[in-house]
Amino acid sequence: MRTLAAAVSMMVLVLCSTAPGCATAARHREAGPSLAGATSDAGFRAADADGTTVFSPLDLPAASAVRLGSGAPGPAYWQQRADYRIDATLHEGERAVSATGTITYHNNSPDPLAYVWLHLEQNLFRADSLGSLSKEPGSRFGYRKGFEGGYEIGPVAVDGAPTELHVYDTLGRIDLPAPLEPGGSITIDLSWRFNVPPFGVDRLAVDEVEQGAIFQIAQWFPAVAVYDDVHGWNTLPYLGQGEFYTNFGDYEVSITAPRSHVVVATGVLTNAAEVLTSSARERLDAAMRSDETVTIRSAAEVGDPSSWPAGDGPLTWRFSARNVRTFAWASSAAFVWDAAGVDVRGSAQARNGRVLVQSAYPKEALPLWGEATQMARHSIDFNSRQWHPYPYPTAVNVNGRVGGMEYPMIVFCAERRNERGLYGVTDHEFGHTWFPMLVNTDERRYAWMDEGFNSFMNVYTIRDRYGENARDRRSDVDAFTAQMTRGQQQPFASTYADHVWRGRLGFLMYGKPAAALVLLREEVLGEERFDAAFRAYIDRWAFKHPQPADFFRTMEDVAGADLAWFWRGWFLSTATLDQAVTGVDHNEDGLWVRVHLASRRDMVMPVRMRVRYDDGSEEERRLPAEVWATTSLWTDGWNPAGRRVVEVVLDPDSVLPDVDRSNNRWSEGRRRN
Ligand SMILES: [Zn+2]
After folding, report:
1. CA-to-CA distance for 424 and 430, rounded, in angstroms?
2. Which fold has domain 81-445?
């Protein structure tokens, strides 16, 4: 689509080159009343009590050498790093995991650190946790009665010296024997064990299927919290709905599981010769070269001892992952496993420009899951070309009890029957590779920066796969317009995920920001300008930690636009939109027509109107949102070339969340306001 400015100037051009009365109209404009503008004082847009209007500059944090005024990371930008070595064992019979680990924590900040905070997310599953006591029992994020969850943590050592871990619900603090100086690092050694929740607030779970249990394991190890320049230690607790915020780092993880299991995980399998048969290794190599799906372990081979290496006792699978913000895995004797490769040019870590895309699922998920690898390939390929190359060497989709959840290189999807449903979840969860796995934001504080941006991307993958008219349920304009007129509204950019009013998470953090970005792209900036800015945001902040202001500033800096009115209307308030056409005047000699418009609520948007004339001709006219900068009443005027306007329709394609469409149409003889 053309940009709005181009559309407006083209319209003027078309009008003046085709309209016979053009020269006369120009003279009339000089001599007579103003044709367009704020023709009445009644619409004056007064400031609120705090001195602001929707167009006032945003009150953003001051720019610095860490975060520039342009929205880019500055020369003094820094972020912390945490590398992990973990040796884990899956105890299938006990439905438990035990592990030992070493965290190497690097202080890249300019600040000495007297203590280190750890996330202990399994403690959510204690009966007396903050999350258990504050979420409604039986809900998706509520505590399940009777389950004994939480970490048992063994002795903790810092640089080899025993130390105490102070545990406060899902957080733990280690007071360091001496401050960790800038540029320094420490190692933290610890061991832990936990029972795997049968349904761990839709993040991890055990699914009992015919040929075994499927373990989906995530948020399963003590992880260092993020220390940054904006909030210091980011210590929002784990309550269930808010996902996670962690540091980038390298992971070397070994997982010991029963010999009959297939284990899939974040990262590259580094000891295939020890855990796979030679035929499985050959198939995996063939899959990497193939665009078509190649079976690694078929449904017929599940449970067949010839499908795993000969011998007794468990096997230890080793995975290596670079520059990821966490590590997750899944293990099951019931897994059917397939894979294919996909080309990704310019990927940070793909091997020879190729990513290995895999799916692991039980036979209960067939036949639908036979398509899952190709669905993932479509999503990864489209988003890599449209926005930024998929950065990692592997991607695996796991079917089990977890409805839909994302981790680096591995996602969990429960859908087993519906094709659109499975594509939707697969595309959404792999879309999280860009936000927040690559562009690392705080999911508990700013869920819109990952769920919203990802849902925006999903609109275009879905259109690419199912056609231009395919609609994403969450960002569908009618659905979210209906939501915006209900009570209990919250501004999404300043509402924590765990503080979203019940049942509104999908609307507030997914649908509304996605719809906002679609409109910013298609109705305000145009594709070229928007895409350059959105890509710049990803490029600038890939493998880094942006804040909301970095996003707002980058979009304005690269697009070359003042969007304060847009961020305020959509992101920072609970504003609603009502555009109205209130009347049409013609002058007697047919030299001009004036259309009277109103913006009746506190959100402003550009105006798009379809005008029909008495000779049956039609034209589309556009006005920028800036017409509303000083007034809520605007008059558009032009030379109709002797024709009479018989109908005006605002937002004719219903793309805006206009809460009252009854005043969007004016027709001769049937006036409405
Ligand atoms: Zn999501």
Report:
1. 10
2. Immunoglobulin-like (2.60.40)
Cα gap 604→621, rounded to integer Å = 17
Residue 273 alpha carbon to ligand 1 centre in Å:
35
pLDDT given for residue 32 in this prediction: 42
Give domain limits for the chain. Answer: 4-53+576-667, 81-445, 476-571
Give 423's contacts (C-beta < 8 A, 6+ positions apart). 375, 378, 462, 465
Residue 388 pLDDT: 98
Helix and strand tally (H, E) in the chain?
Answer: 14, 33
Task: Please state which CATH number belongs to domain 4-53+576-667.
Answer: 2.60.40.1840
pLDDT at 239: 93
Measured in Å, residue 442 CA sits from the centre of ligand 1 at: 13
SS (H, E, C) 119-171: ECHHHHHCCCCHHHHHCCCCCCCCCCCCCCCCCEECCEEECCEEECEEEECCE
**Which tokens in the block code for residue 36?**
């367009």
Whole-number Å distance between alpha carbons of 62 and 522: 30
Contact 167, 152 (CB under 8 A): no
Distance between Cα 425 and ligand 1 center (Å): 9
Instruction: Please give the distance, rounded to the nearest whole angstrom, from the Cα atom of residue 243 to the centre of ligand 1.
Output: 9
d(CA 598, CA 596): 7
Distance, CA 503 to ligand 1 centroid (Å)? 15
Tokens 């397939």 sit on residue = 338
Q: At what angle do helices 22-31 and 4-18 cross, to 10 degrees?
A: 110
Q: Give which of 182, 2, 153, 164 is closest to 76, Cα–Cα.
A: 182
Domains 4-53+576-667 and 81-445 share a fold: yes
Coil/strand/helix, residue 604: coil
How close is the Cα of 354 to the center of ligand 1, in Å? 25
CA of 407 to the centre of ligand 1 (A): 10
Element (H, E) at 193: strand 185-195
3-class DSSP state for residue 408? Answer: coil
Residue 239: name the closest of 404, 405, 125, 97 by CA: 125
Cβ–Cβ under 8 Å, residues 362 and 335: yes
Q: Could you tell me the two tokens for 325?
A: 């913000």
Task: With beta carbons less than 8 A apart as the criterion, state whether 519 and 530 touch.
Answer: no
Using the mean position of ligand 1's atoms as its centre, give its distance from the Cα of residue 155 in Å: 36
The model's pLDDT over 43-96, given as tens digits with 9 standing for 90+, comes to: 887 778 788 889 999 999 999 999 999 999 999 999 999 999 999 999 999 999
**Residue 321 identity:** A
pLDDT digits (tens, 9 = 90+) for 468-489: 887 766 667 777 788 888 888 8
With a cut of 50, list the residues of the chain below it in pLDDT: 1-32, 671-673
Q: What is the pLDDT of residue 40?
A: 67
> For residue 429, how far is its CA from the centre of ligand 1 (angstroms)?
6
